Amino acid sequence: MKDSRDRGGWITLALILATLALWEAIVRVRDIPPYLLPAPSQVLSTLVEHRGAYAAATALTLAEALAGLFLGAFAGSLVAILLSLFPRLEQGVLTLAVFIKYTPLVAIAPLLTIWLGFGVLPKVIITALLTFFPVLVNMLSGLHSADQALLDTLRSWHASRLEIFRHVRAPSSMPYLFAALKVSGPLALIGAVIAEWTGASGGLGRTMWLAYTNLNLPFLFAAVFVLAAAGMILYALIDRAERRLIFWGPRRL
Asked: Could you give the dihedral angle defined by the CA atoms of residues 113, 118, 120 and 124, in that order, rounded to the nearest 10 degrees?
């Protein structure tokens, strides 16, 4: 199993390097100017030259994303647990959650910036709103997927709702929760960047916005590369946590 994961990692790395090499060759052969499409080597040199600025921007955006991810995941999990304990509320709460989900965040972000200022709080709220719905829906599906035979057995023993939740529903919901976190983790980074576009004193979103307004595409692509790398690392950490914490069920190759 470990050999299979290592082999998959090497294949992924080879594909990334091949894509970058092809990109570099196309830019050089066709002599594409940097203000249209910079070569990967130029993006890398920009990133190395301004590594301090990108490190500070990445730290700020990552902090906003993680705070929003935690808040959204906590709220989504809590609401899902309450709905599993009080199923009569499910239809009304899910309707409200869907309404929040399909409200354009690009319209909400400027309002939060006006109301709450240019600090970290609006970015955290936007990120939490973006991650709340996937966690709520997946967690609720996991809570409803509990083995019916186990539920009937505990009910025949006159177990309380909390005991059923603790021993059956909660364990069955954990894989669904981590599946939601794998989706919500990269979304949290995107939400933080979108919120920073509406007004921020720092972060990758501000770096990308300033680079775009000045048509400085090497700076813009460097920020995009950093954001993509951060998303991949965050996904890998969540996947690793899932492998360590969920020790029951079939082993994945």
From this structure: 20
The average pLDDT across 115-130 equals 87
pLDDT in tens, 186-202: 889 988 998 888 877 78
What's the chain's average pLDDT? Answer: 86
Ordered DSSP codes for the chain? -HHHHHHHHHHHHHHHHHHHHHHHHHHHHHT--TTT---HHHHHHHHHHTHHHHHHHHHHHHHHHHHHHHHHHHHHHHHHHHHHHSGGGHHHHHHHHHHHHTS-HHHHHHHHHHHH-SSSHHHHHHHHHHHHHHHHHHHHHHHHTS-HHHHHHHHHTT--HHHHIIIIIHHHHHHHHHHHHHHHHHHHHHHHHHHHHTS-SSSHHHHHHHHHHTT-HHHHHHHHHHHHHHHHHHHHHHHHHHHHH--SSPPP-
Q: What angle do helix axes 204-213 and 51-85 make, rounded to 10 degrees? A: 120
pLDDT at 6: 59
- Rounded Cα distance between 46 and 50, Å, is 6
Mean pLDDT of 122-142: 91
CA-CA distances (angstroms) from residue 241 to 75, 137, 143, 174, 206? 20, 21, 20, 11, 31
